[in-house]
């Protein structure tokens, strides 16, 4: 059989370069090792994402449950203080936990983990957090929250049935378990011998690939193409594994702890909002009959939002017209004759109106306000 390779000096009987079985087996071995490492690195990355999000979810569920338990309390003067302290401590807990996972000491370097109003916590407690070692701060705040829960059971702020209250402790502890799972990924790296073996095989494959491929092609350009494809794919997978096998840190491809902390803070602040304190109730238009409810129209949230916006716009226009009547309506109510006794033919208004006895300065100040209100109401149209 005629050989058409570019290196005839390497052609001899039973040559490993002319028999593709040996090189194919080696190529398969290198590919398997690289793909296995990439798969393990992706598993570590995804486990880090899962554990940190579960940690945040469990701790927010705990805070939300504790805030809802205060609805049954009659100690109204203590509820607000308990809510504010709870929100600040949970924000501090999440920040210290993520700083420990990322290996950051926020007393020495900027961690980018904002805390909700740290000045609202007493200075003795803040100093205690800063004086503790980095790997003890999260545990200290964790213990403070548990103690605060127990103390407010005695004060009557958390006057809820013990089996229900114990659920908050369980969720709180589950969040700490997820924290330790994330810490495990940060502390235990990918096995170093496996990494070194993989890179050594990749180097050997990089040197051997041109010698093997050049024997099976007719032109050097095709040899370059096939070598580039094999080497580039294997090295790319290996570099991807190196980048994602440690998901915690400050690199661009690591998890964004600062963004997660800001989202957690915004969720905690929602618990202090007035909308979160009230409980929804049925409106006067609610259909209480099951057949009528079954046959009623189904509206999407977008459609319902547009209806509410249009109703709000109409109500606002009515209130503006009641406070600032039009000149035509005002002229109909004012007598036309400037002299002589006149009798009013209109009934007294039931809504507040601008009195006719106004000075020129007050009229000049009221006209721009009416114009601004009208322009603002008309501007709501494009927003809907």
How would you characterize this protein structure?
- There is one protein chain.
- The protein is mainly alpha-helical and 384 residues long.
- It has a domain at 24-277.
- Helix content is 66%, strand content 0%.
- It has 14 helices and no strands.
- The chain has helices at residues 20-69, 76-102, 123-131, 137-155, 162-187, 192-213, 220-244, 257-270, 274-277, 290-295, 301-323, 327-333, 360-378, 380-383.
- Helix 1 (20-69) runs antiparallel to helix 2 (76-102).
- The protein is extended.
- Mean pLDDT is 79; it is low at 1-6 and 333-384.
Give me the secondary-structure topology.
Elements: H1 20-69, H2 76-102, H3 123-131, H4 137-155, H5 162-187, H6 192-213, H7 220-244, H8 257-270, H9 274-277, H10 290-295, H11 301-323, H12 327-333, H13 360-378, H14 380-383
Keywords:
384 residues, mainly alpha, extended, disordered N terminus
Order of helices and strands: HHHHHHHHHHHHHH
Number of helices: 14
Question: How much beta, percentage-wise?
Answer: under 5%
Largest sheet: none
Mean pLDDT: 79
Decide which structural class fits the backbone. Answer: mainly alpha
- The beta-strand count equals 0
Distance between the termini: 79 Å
Extract low-pLDDT stretches.
1-6, 333-384
Q: What Rg, in angstroms, do the CA atoms define?
A: 36 Å
What share of the residues lie within helices? Answer: 55-70%
Shape type: extended
Summarize the structure.
The chain is mainly α. The chain has a domain at 24-277. The protein has helices spanning 20-69, 76-102, 123-131, 137-155, 162-187, 192-213, 220-244, 257-270, 274-277, 290-295, 301-323, 327-333, 360-378, 380-383.
